[in-house]
TrEMBL record, chain A:
Its main location: membrane. This is Na(+)-translocating NADH-quinone reductase subunit B. Its EC number is 7.2.1.1. The modification FMN phosphoryl threonine is found at residue 220. It is a multi-pass membrane protein. Signal peptide: none annotated. Pfam families: NQR2_RnfD_RnfE. It catalyses: a ubiquinone + n Na(+)(in) + NADH + H(+) = a ubiquinol + n Na(+)(out) + NAD(+). Keywords: Cell inner membrane, Cell membrane, Flavoprotein, FMN, Ion transport, Membrane, NAD, Phosphoprotein, Sodium, Sodium transport, Translocase, Transmembrane, Transmembrane helix, Transport, Ubiquinone. Composed of six subunits; NqrA, NqrB, NqrC, NqrD, NqrE and NqrF. Belongs to the NqrB/RnfD family. The gene is nqrB. NQR complex catalyzes the reduction of ubiquinone-1 to ubiquinol by two successive reactions, coupled with the transport of Na(+) ions from the cytoplasm to the periplasm. NqrA to NqrE are probably involved in the second step, the conversion of ubisemiquinone to ubiquinol. It comes from the Bacteria.
Automatic annotation (TrEMBL), chain B:
HAMAP family: NqrD (MF_00428). It comes from Prevotella illustrans. Its main location: membrane. This is Na(+)-translocating NADH-quinone reductase subunit D. It is a multi-pass membrane protein. It is an enzyme of class 7 (translocase). The keyword Repeat does not apply. The lineage of its organism: Bacteria, Pseudomonadati, Bacteroidota, Bacteroidia, Bacteroidales. Signal peptide: none annotated. NCBIfam families: nqrD, PRK09292.1. It catalyses: a ubiquinone + n Na(+)(in) + NADH + H(+) = a ubiquinol + n Na(+)(out) + NAD(+). It is found in: Cell membrane; Endomembrane system. NQR complex catalyzes the reduction of ubiquinone-1 to ubiquinol by two successive reactions, coupled with the transport of Na(+) ions from the cytoplasm to the periplasm. NqrA to NqrE are probably involved in the second step, the conversion of ubisemiquinone to ubiquinol. Keywords: Cell inner membrane, Cell membrane, Ion transport, Membrane, NAD, Sodium, Sodium transport, Translocase, Transmembrane, Transmembrane helix, Transport, Ubiquinone. PANTHER family: ELECTRON TRANSPORT COMPLEX PROTEIN RNFE, NA(+)-TRANSLOCATING NADH-QUINONE REDUCTASE SUBUNIT D.
Length: 384, 207
């Protein structure tokens, strides 16, 4: 309990009149992150869950770790594979290269996003909101590894301000912050976010990795399909994730571990998650039957950002539908929409981001309809 | 009444700031999103709206007592339509490329809510001179926002202003890129929101 005692000792500095009062919200943020606060509401009747939202967020971050670690390894793997030196490199070297390539992105994302959150909280005299803990790690995982850091910083700032703070902060936002950041990058700097030249780290870091020749390109399986070529990747690679793609989205196994953690702890709703997959399957089967897509339905699910979006982003409790029936509709809409965009829009090889944005937009309407449906059903029951 | 009395000054100055047609009344949003991807069309559009608002205000104010109340909207529309046609023809003759960029939006000035709003709310009940000031003020208030948004969008979206490249090639070589989203009208709406946000933060103190 030394840490607790230490926190208690320095606490007066941050309170009203203390010399470090300007950093009160930061202290408060760290304190409540480390220890569950004993504050309770002073008015009205409230239901308290056993864990508070900071603990929930930490759990999601833990669930994201497998995808992140595998993503780091895959960044190294793709670089060494492209240079043809994979056989001579040790596993550790490959991972370390990927780690060094991804780490700056995670740092930039957290520093920019949390910086704005802290400043905002201090300015408004509010508590620091915990939502960015998760967004800050999702954002680096859903961008290509070659994204310049300044673009990432800009996107994080844009997403935090325009997708979250202006709506009133965590819990009030309509749109998922991570999707907002990716949307911003996609529409602002599309040449750095799609195409064949962005998926493999091109420069060596601290002597690790390989410098790839200028103009090196490597298409993702989905963009190959978009160009009308059948991808030559094996199902094994698609499932393990040893394919080019955004940093954290490639491995179905790593995302599966995360999904298991989220479902086991009850943080993500299995209704949303399963209906996203169901929607994807239905739509992929329809397109396959119509002959509009060359790949099988299960390949649609394991390629691109479908799994990552379904597990970590569609299930965001704030932006998804909140009614139980609504979750099914919401999930189905996202899954179906993702495949529709993929297959029918030649400009976008991947549609998960747009589908989640679309789903977020409709979530309040879905909830409204479900609630009204319930109300009218009960009114009818009363009349009989 | 003196030409530049205090009252007239207010009529002219209010629409520039505290009664701005875009920022406060939130009128004319459609055209301000559509024509602001470059600064030049934004300026031309702002001027066109200013001229048309001013002169339609004057004409309507001059004949306001002779207009039968029941057909006043039609009379107003005829005046506005005539002015819009004149401006559109002049634009085609003088600055053809800009008129192509503005395309339908010059013609659509006729449906601009600011115009009809000023005619109905001001010109119908005021003398020509104050109506003229009111029209110029509202037109300039509209143009002001168009220029702010247009300048931001062209600078960030294309690195230039009025077609002159401002961001040097060396910056692009160092990795800077133009923001493609700025050239979309979605971003214009966000920028417009920011302009309104800043304006409210400065001029509307919560009581």
């Amino acid at each position: 309990m030394n840490l607790r005692n230490y926190l208690n000792k320095i606490k007066p500095n941050f309170q009203e009149g203390g010399k470090l009062h300007a950093f009160e919200s930061i202290f408060d943020g760290f304190e409540t992150f480390l220890y569950v606060p004993n504050r309770t509401s002073t008015s009205g009747v409230n239901i308290h869950d056993a864990i508070d939202s900071k603990r929930i967020m930490s759990m999601v971050v833990i669930a994201l770790l497998p995808a992140m670690l595998f993503g780091m390894y895959n960044v190294g793997y793709q670089n060494y594979l492209a240079a043809g030196t994979l056989a001579t490199a040790s596993l550790f070297e490959v991972f370390l290269f990927g780690f060094l390539a991804v780490l700056p992105k995670i740092l930039v994302s957290y520093i920019v996003g949390l910086g704005i959150e802290f400043a905002w909280a201090q300015w408004k005299h509010e508590e620091i909101q915990e939502g960015y803990l998760v967004s800050g790690i999702i954002i680096p995982l859903i961008i290509p590894v070659t994204t310049p850091l300044w673009m990432l910083a800009l996107a994080c700032a844009f997403a935090v301000i325009f997708c979250k703070e202006i709506f009133g902060g965590t819990g009030m936002n309509i749109f998922n912050v991570a999707v907002g950041a990716r949307m911003f990058l996609f529409f602002s700097y599309s040449s750095k976010m799609t195409g064949d030249a962005v998926w493999v780290a091109q420069e060596s870091i601290l002597g690790l990795g390989n410098n790839l020749p200028d103009g090196f390109t490597m298409a993702t399986p989905l963009s190959q399909i978009g160009q009308g070529i059948l991808p030559n990747t094996s199902i094994y690679n698609m499932v393990t994730g040893l394919i080019p793609g955004s940093i954290g989205e490639t491995s179905v196994i790593a995302i599966g571990i995360g999904a298991f953690i989220l479902l086991w702890t009850g943080i993500a709703s299995w209704k949303t998650m399963s209906s996203v997959f169901f929607g994807g399957v239905v739509m992929a089967l329809i397109f396959k039957t119509l002959g509009m897509t060359p790949i099988a339905w299960y390949e649609h699910l394991i390629l691109g950002g479908f799994c990552f979006g379904a597990v970590f982003m569609a299930t965001d409790p704030v932006t998804s539908a909140r009614t139980e029936t609504g979750k099914y509709i919401y999930g189905f809409m996202i899954g179906a929409m993702a495949i529709i965009v993929r297959v029918m829009n030649p400009g976008y090889p991947e549609g998960m981001m747009l589908a989640i944005f679309f789903g977020n937009m409709f979530a309040p309407l879905i909830d409204y309809c479900v609630v009204n449906q319930n109300v009218s059903r009960r009114v009818n029951r009363l009349k009989k | 009444m003196a030409l530049f009395s205090k009252q007239n000054k207010e009529i002219f100055c209010n629409p520039l700031n505290l009664d701005n047609p875009i920022m406060v009344q939130v009128l004319g949003i459609c055209s301000s999103l559509a024509v602001t991807s470059l600064l030049k069309p934004a300026i031309v559009m702002g001027l066109a709206v200013t001229i048309i608002t001013a002169f339609s205000n004057v004409i309507i104010a001059a004949i306001r007592n002779t207009i039968p109340n029941r057909i006043r909207i039609i009379v107003q529309l005829v005046v506005v339509a005539a002015l819009v046609t004149i401006v559109s023809q002049i634009l085609k003759a003088v600055a053809y490329d800009v008129s192509v960029q503005l395309s339908v939006y010059v013609g659509l000035i006729i449906t601009n809510c600011i115009l009809m709003g000023r005619l109905e709310a001001f010109a119908m009940t005021n003398k020509p001179w104050p109506s003229f000031l009111d029209g110029v003020g509202n037109g300039l208030g509209y143009a002001l926002i168009l220029v702010i948004v247009g300048a931001l969008r062209e600078f960030v979206g294309r690195g230039s202003l009025l077609g002159f490249q401002l961001i040097p090639q060396s910056a692009y070589d160092a990795g800077y890129m133009n923001n493609g989203m700025m050239t979309m009208s979605a971003m214009a709406l966000i920028l417009l929101g920011c302009v309104i946000w800043v304006h409210r933060a400065y001029f509307y103190k919560e009581k």
